[in-house]
Amino acid sequence: MNSPDNFDKNSNVDQNEISKFNEIAARWWDPEGEFKPLHLLNPTRLGYISDQLGGLFGRNTLDVGCGGGILAESMARAGAKVTGIDMAPDGLNVARLHALEAGVNIDYQQSTAEDFAERHAGEFELVTCMEMLEHVPDPASVVRACAELAAPGATLVFSTINKTAKAYLFAIVGAEYLLKLVPRGTHQFDKFIRPSVLMRYIEDAGLELVDATGLHFNPLNNSFKLGAGLDVNYFVVARKPV
């Protein structure tokens, strides 16, 4: 693949993406701000993740691309031992401060998945990578790193956006321009990932596919639900062989 000029080949980081999230980092925990969709969907995705493991209590968990900590903090509140990694320093600072104020113990570190895997291979019972793969130059590399970070028998949960005309209409035209749920420019259609491609990344990383389900938004009541159809947002669950 051709790499953009702002792609550091050694770190799989798009500096434009980091800058974009740093600029709005202070509003991570504003439920009516730019990250409102994440606040709305978090109960649904937390429940889905918990169901895949039969509960989160005591699970050694890594949240890759944790941002301001919305998912990481909710998993910690459910009893998981959580580490969160991200490359946007301002978002991590917000995550640390919010966890401190909330009295929640989470280990936040600035790192790529690839670098973290070199130091913590095989440590985690659960690895989550949510709404992150469409923001890096080489998503397959992130999937491989997640596989390395997972312990034998671990569960891995990925979420991203399908590369379809419907996804373009819903995730970009609808969410960014019409409903203004997220800032314009948040998503780039050419970075969206078809389920078949993500599943190939997962299998190439030595993981076993477990489940795939769609995530559907209802703008009439601002709610998300799980269901058939992977044509816009979707989850894929994998397991690392024992």
Automatic annotation (TrEMBL):
EC number(s) on file: 2.1.1.222, 2.1.1.64
GO BP of this protein: methylation
Pathway: Cofactor biosynthesis; ubiquinone biosynthesis
Top-level EC class: transferase
Keywords of this entry: Methyltransferase, S-adenosyl-L-methionine, Transferase, Ubiquinone, Ubiquinone biosynthesis
Swiss-Prot/TrEMBL catalytic activity: a 3-(all-trans-polyprenyl)benzene-1,2-diol + S-adenosyl-L-methionine = a 2-methoxy-6-(all-trans-polyprenyl)phenol + S-adenosyl-L-homocysteine + H(+); a 3-demethylubiquinol + S-adenosyl-L-methionine = a ubiquinol + S-adenosyl-L-homocysteine + H(+)
Domain of life from the UniProt record: Bacteria
Entry's Gene Ontology molecular function annotations: 2-polyprenyl-6-hydroxyphenol methylase activity; 3-demethylubiquinol 3-O-methyltransferase activity; polyprenyldihydroxybenzoate methyltransferase activity
Function: O-methyltransferase that catalyzes the 2 O-methylation steps in the ubiquinone biosynthetic pathway.
UniProt family annotation: Belongs to the methyltransferase superfamily. UbiG/COQ3 family.
Protein's name in the database: Ubiquinone biosynthesis O-methyltransferase
